[in-house]
Write a structure and sequence with these properties.
Blueprint lengths: L1 H10 L2 H26 L5 H15 L5 E2 L7 E2 L13 H7 L3 H26 L2 H13 L1 H8 L9 H13 L2 H12 L7 H13 L3 H29 L4 H6 L12 H13 L11 H12 L18 H22 L5 H22 L10 H6 L4 H8 L7 E3 L1 H6 L6 E3 L11 E5 L14 H9 L4 E6 L3 E6 L4
Parallel strand pairs: 3-4, 3-5
Antiparallel strand pairs: 1-2, 5-7, 6-7
Helix pairs in contact: 2-5, 3-4, 5-6, 5-8, 5-15, 6-15, 6-16, 8-9, 8-15, 10-11
């Protein structure tokens, strides 16, 4: 208790009050937007429902078995290896609601801002420049989109990675190893990030930290190798499906740089003032992220949307800090008459410009926070909540993805499929309104499914709200 009191008194300064205010505002804005999108049924079984199912299962001390198009009825750790998600299980056990995942995700990213600020202060020494770097970090639209795009384990990465970077630059072993192990547990391929920076530690340090660099390099690579080659086989029997799929494609080796991919790279660097370009030693993990995304045939991975950009945001701001220092040194060397006040103005203008580009030009979801129509829209989905209330608690339920995501905490929930009859679910839940999000009927021919269900003699309608219906399998004696 005395330690906590001492910590509060030590950090009860204008600087830290301002810091926690910025972090709190960021947390409130994106938690609010994410929750309302969830209440508007803009979360689907892919990916929200998969994580909600797994986390809920572990909260009941059961195996995290999920429904998956590739690995049907499989352990989620055989899809991607991200055991960090189970930190949320105790909270789901207590609150028993899907909103917990979204709050937890935003909290992780918001809290990472504390360590980003401390990292920035280590490099910049001044509060003004450190806050400027924090604003660059929090203004990145790639991070904004990740936070409002349902839930994903990789969106949790900014906190573990910022812990790792903080421990690395401050040479604090506790934070370094806490960050290292947390990064490794976030996803199977994240081992590449600590492996690369361990290599830098090895070459840039002597004594104890050189040994730490050697250990963390060997451990990271060995861990990644073990997970990819053995852990996946243990959980799904075949190995890493995504890695095997990628290696069979020419695009996986030499992805084409079309307009969309170029824009992603350009705006990512632009957000950080192109400063990371001046810190090339930080770029390999970022380039690997882009290469792995751009080699996919799924164009949703190529832009600044979804969760993929959260992975590189801490590395980009680390590179921005180093690059900004080098730019200042260059300015002082070439133009010694250039006063520090002018440098502050330059950085201030960059922060304002990037914020404007992200919020106004790129249409950041942060704009939803101040849109009254957005909140009113949340009231328009009570009919779907009523539909869910009428779903029987027994048996296997198959539902379209935005409904399946809401009830994913149940033990037996499947995504709706064209060949639903092969799964023989006890109940099928469908909202037949036209014009819904494509993800709602993922992989389904809507009109064929509707005709098939309405004429299926093996199912009867037990709930009919017009376009919203619940079908029950007829038990034949």
């Amino acid at each position: 208790m005395n330690t906590l009191t001492s910590f509060i008194k030590k950090n009860n300064t204008k600087e830290y009050r301002r810091l926690f205010l910025i972090i709190s505002v960021f947390f409130i804005i994106f938690t609010t937007v994410a929750l309302h999108r969830y209440w508007q049924y803009s979360a689907w079984y892919y990916d929200f429902g998969i994580f909600y199912t797994a986390i809920s299962s572990v909260s009941r001390l059961e195996a995290p078995i999920i429904d998956h198009f590739v690995f049907t009825n499989t352990n989620i750790l055989g899809d991607h290896f991200h055991p960090i998600i189970f930190l949320i299980s105790p909270f789901v056990a207590i609150f028993k609601t899907g909103e917990v995942l979204l709050v937890f995700q935003t909290f992780f990213v918001a809290l990472s801002g504390l360590f980003i600020y401390l990292i920035s202060k280590h490099y910049q020494k001044t509060k003004f420049e450190s806050f400027a770097m924090l604003m660059l970090y929090f203004s990145f639209i790639g991070l904004h989109n990740a936070l409002i795009t349902e839930f994903h384990a990789i969106t949790l990465l900014p906190l573990p990675l910022s812990l790792f970077f903080y421990g690395m630059i401050k040479k604090k072993k506790f934070w370094y190893f806490l960050g290292l192990f947390s990064v490794l547990l976030t996803k199977e391929l994240t081992f590449i990030i600590p492996a690369w920076f361990s290599l830098l530690i090895l070459f840039k340090n002597k004594g104890e930290w050189r040994k730490i660099g050697i250990f963390s390099l060997i451990f990271s690579v060995a861990y990644g190798y073990f997970v990819i080659n053995y852990v996946f086989k243990f959980f799904n029997g075949t190995g890493n499906y995504y890695l095997g799929e990628a290696t069979t494609s020419i695009e996986a080796i030499l992805p084409k740089f079309d307009e969309l991919r170029i824009k992603t790279i350009f705006y990512s660097f632009l957000n950080f003032g192109f400063f990371p370009v001046l810190a090339p030693e930080t770029l390999p993990p970022i380039l690997f992220n882009w290469w792995s995304r751009f080699s996919s045939v799924a164009t949703t991975r190529h832009d600044l949307g979804m969760h993929y950009n959260a992975e590189i945001t801490p590395t980009l701001i680390l590179g921005a800090n180093i690059g900004w220092i080098r730019l200042k040194m260059f300015i002082h060397k070439v133009m010694p008459f250039f006063k520090y006040q002018y440098i502050k103005v330059l950085l201030f203008l960059i922060v304002i410009l990037t914020a404007f580009i992200n919020v106004v030009y790129l249409n950041s979801p942060i704009l939803l926070f101040g849109n009254s129509a957005f909140y009113k829209h949340s009231q328009n989905f009570k009919f779907l909540s009523t539909l869910i209330d009428h779903i029987p608690k027994d048996g296997v339920v198959m539902a379209q993805t935005n409904i399946a995501a809401k009830i994913a905490y149940r033990r037996h929930v499947l995504m709706l499929r064209d060949n639903y009859d092969q799964f023989s679910p006890d109940y099928i839940v469908v909202d037949f309104r036209e014009g819904q999000e494509p993800n709602t009927f993922l992989g389904i021919n809507f009109y064929d499914l509707k005709f098939k269900l309405l004429h299926d003699l093996d199912y009867e309608i037990i709930y009919d709200q017009g376009e919203q219906k619940i079908f029950k399998k007829i038990v034949k004696e």
